[in-house]
Amino acid sequence: MLNEIEEIIPFKLPIEQKESLINGNLVKFNEDKVDIYSPIYEGDKPIYLGSHPKMSGQEALLALDAAAKAFDNGNGIWPTMKVEDRIKSVEKFLTMMKKSEKEIVTLLMLEIGKSKTDSAKEFTRTIAYIEDTIFALKDLDRTSSRLVIADNVYAQIRRSPLGIVLCMGPFNYPLNETFTTLIPALIMGNTVIVKPPKLGVLFFKYLLPIFEQSFPPGVVNFIYGDGATIVSPIISSGRVDVLAFIGTSKVADIIRKQHPAPHRLRCVLGLDAKNPAIILNDADLNLTVSEVISGSLSFNGQRCTALKIIFVEKKIAKDFQRVLLEKIKNLKIGLPWEDSFITPVAEKTKPNQLYKLTEDALKKGAEAFIDGLPVELKDLKEYLPENENDIKSQLVKPIVLWDVRENMDIYSIEQFGPIIPVVIFDSIESPLSYIIKSQYGQQASIFSNDPKKISKLIDPLVNQVCRVNINSQCQRGPDIFPFTGRKDSAEGTLSISDALRVFSIRSLVAFKGTDENKEIVDRILDERLSNFLNTDFIL
């Protein structure tokens, strides 16, 4: 296995990262470290990939001090810089980042088990997101370049930064979703502290020198190590203005409660979801099953936007089961660089959690299918090690749980893995009641060819979830669309234009239209004395 890996990687393993970016310098930390293992195994042991620093709380506060110094209560070079110049810094970063594509894509495969195709897509999508963010900011700035007049009061209204932002991305999209908060926060003039996810972290080693070269000291800082150790002192200091976090609501609540002024802390959160699909009896079965498989199992179901529970109308349940099991049997299962559809799951404890959910469902009357074949409870026990850490592989084949009921754990728990729970319903009130009672409200999918049936579901669903998909799986993109959720699923909206607004606030300079004031402002504009109050037009 190691010989096979060495043939595809553009670097040598292991990667022993000893430095972090603090105040514009790559600072070495030679004491504690965190070892990183792949979800891919050599025999019965995970492959060692390398390590990164395990910073202390005191060391993490160095990053906070640097970010605070760079922001300087709004007086720093970065927050007062012209928008055009901030854009140039991001463009410089983007140009250099493109040169690290091979390293980043390879490490996504090795560290979180993402397929080669999906790893490459994550990189190219991130590049496109940065380019589109730059374009959106130029457009926003052009709109803000003119003066507004009302009741003989003149004003220029622009967006200004909020302060210090703590960015924490998820392991499933460690590059893309980290950058969907990091880049808009940066380009709007905030200073940023980045805490990479626990998994999907080693590739940042290739980006640290690029951040160092592209931005003024202290504008971008990285902290590494145990979240409780390094995040707690930063948040509890009360000096962080924005928490940008993508992960579980449980962890988000723990973090935000540590801020001494929680009413002042602005939160941008992408959290849990249990997105349902509602399949009506007139749905196109081939299309529907293809979308359900892609929606439930892409990247092993380790996506907040995945379809996580399937409601099938009873009249077509057996036909749906037949087509679903047949298509699942044909999925390619294997290693990421073989472009397998199903690859090892990223978290070491995840296989045992998934089999426990399956065991619970079987005990309470559901049927289970693996490789398209039924699995008895006694056969499932071979997948369950006595110690949940003592597993021999992180490769979990897709599991279909059939006839799931309300008393089963999988009915309400977000599995975040390759399990497809199927609920059979007679009345449409069943899935609607589920969605209304659910603590989550991100998205839902409707599968039907009847406009009247679809329309009757759309109207109640848009008041429960933030996106209703017709005859297609749940998804985040395109990135110009709003991405958010109701209830416990999200706080704040992340699309390209929305993200620019969520990391900034409208500020204005206003003056009465007297001759004296007009003369003063004319001079400020003509001599370009202010970076905020100006009518320059970015092309």
Structural description of this entry:
The chain is α/β, with parallel strands linked by helices. It has 2 domains: 2-270, Aldehyde Dehydrogenase, Chain A, domain 1; 275-479, 3-Layer(aba) Sandwich (Aldehyde Dehydrogenase, Chain A, domain 2). Helices cover 37% and strands 22% of the residues. It has 18 helices and 24 strands. An 8-stranded mixed sheet has the order 16-15-17-18-14-13-20-21, with helices on both faces. Strand 13, helix 10 and strand 14 form a beta-alpha-beta unit. Helix 3 packs antiparallel against helix 7 (208-214), helix 4 (101-112) packs across helix 5 and helix 5 (116-144) packs parallel to helix 6 (176-187). The radius of gyration is 25 Å and the shape is globular. The chain starts with a helix and ends in a 13-residue tail after the last helix.
Count of DSSP strands = 24
Distance between the termini: 52 Å
Overall geometry comes to globular
Overall pLDDT confidence: 96
Q: Fill in the CATH topology of the largest domain.
A: Aldehyde Dehydrogenase, Chain A, domain 1
Provide the structure class.
alpha/beta
The CATH fourth-level homologous superfamily of the largest domain: Aldehyde Dehydrogenase, Chain A, domain 1
Number of domains: 2
Amount of beta strand: 15-25%
Q: What is the CATH-assigned architecture of the largest domain?
A: 3-Layer(aba) Sandwich
CATH class of the largest domain: Alpha Beta
Helical segment tally?
18
Instruction: Evaluate the radius of gyration.
Output: 25 Å
**Helical content, roughly?**
25-40%
Residue stretches low in confidence (pLDDT < 50, at least 5 long) are none
Describe the sheet with the most strands.
8 strands, mixed
